[in-house]
Amino acid sequence: MSSTAKSSSTLAANKTSTQSQQPVPKNWPEDITYLTDHTYSAAVTADQRTALTRTGTADATWTQIPPTSIQAPSPLLEIRTVTDINHPAAGQRGLFATQHLAPDSFICLYLGHVHTNTMSDQDPHSDYDLNLDHDLGLSVDAARSGNESRCTNDYRGIAERPNAEFRDCYVQVPCTKRAAGMKWERRAGKRKAGVRAGEEVLVNYGKGYWEGRKAVASFRRDEEMLRIAQLALDS
Ligand SMILES: C[S@@+](CC[C@H](N)C(=O)[O-])C[C@H]1O[C@@H](n2cnc3c(N)ncnc32)[C@H](O)[C@@H]1O
């Protein structure tokens, strides 16, 4: 599963996550912890964390997202329950733009629990797992905790093409070892071609995602999940 501000009154601030007094977006699922930054599995090593930090010039083209562009909840987005019965994810949640999101503009980070890709540290059944760094063997799972991004659906069966995509970017995180007290650390963020106000934000999960879901559905003998995965693969 990679722009700016409207009144925060479009997002309810009357509920809080279980861990803090952090306001959560309207329609946020009650059983999911709302995050404002990643959490990390104990299996993620200090070396892996360091490798996520911007050090060299090879990745200098990656966008640095200024802290002012990252708001939680995001005023750019609204989580809605999909009521259109022709929508393949009807009854589930989807993510919608509250205003026009300009082409190539930053939309939202994909936050969740960063884990290693070892069998013991991942949930193969998760529908919310996004690769963070293949070489480092790290992914982000938003199955139990995350932010608005976890509600982004795949474009298959909904639109002709995706209108957003996940791109690598950097955000500033606190660092006591740096004189500035901050360093740039890698994240996945959504941006792309432009999304009209009220339009659903859709990405391309990739065929591999749906093939994986199909395999899990077959293993679980979950007919409904199998049907959805096959539909997505056929569309
Ligand atoms: C990351 S979640 C997306 C948010 C999800 N709709 C929700 O309510 O939390 C991924 C799951 O959403 C559903 N989904 C997303 N895009 C879909 C599509 N194009 N067709 C059918 N189901 C889709 C599938 O159940 C998939 O496993």
Walkthrough of the structure:
With 235 residues, the chain is α/β, with parallel strands linked by helices. The chain has a single domain, classed as Beta-clip-like (Beta Complex). Helices cover 14% and strands 25% of the residues. The chain has 3 helices and 14 strands. The strands form 5 sheets. Strands 2-7-9-8 form a 4-stranded mixed beta sheet, with no helix packed on it. A hairpin with a 4-residue loop joins strand 8 and strand 9. Helix 2 runs antiparallel to helix 3. The N terminus is likely disordered. Bound molecules: S-adenosylmethionine (SAM). S-adenosylmethionine binds next to strand 11 and helix 3. This is SET domain-containing protein. It comes from Friedmanniomyces endolithicus.
Short synopsis of the structure:
This protein is of the alpha/beta class. 14% of the residues lie in helices and 25% in strands.
Shape: globular
Q: Approximately how much helix is present in the residues? A: 10-25%
How many separate domains make up the residues?
Answer: 1
What is the terminal separation in angstroms?
18 Å
Instruction: Report the count of strand segments.
Output: 14
Structural class: alpha/beta
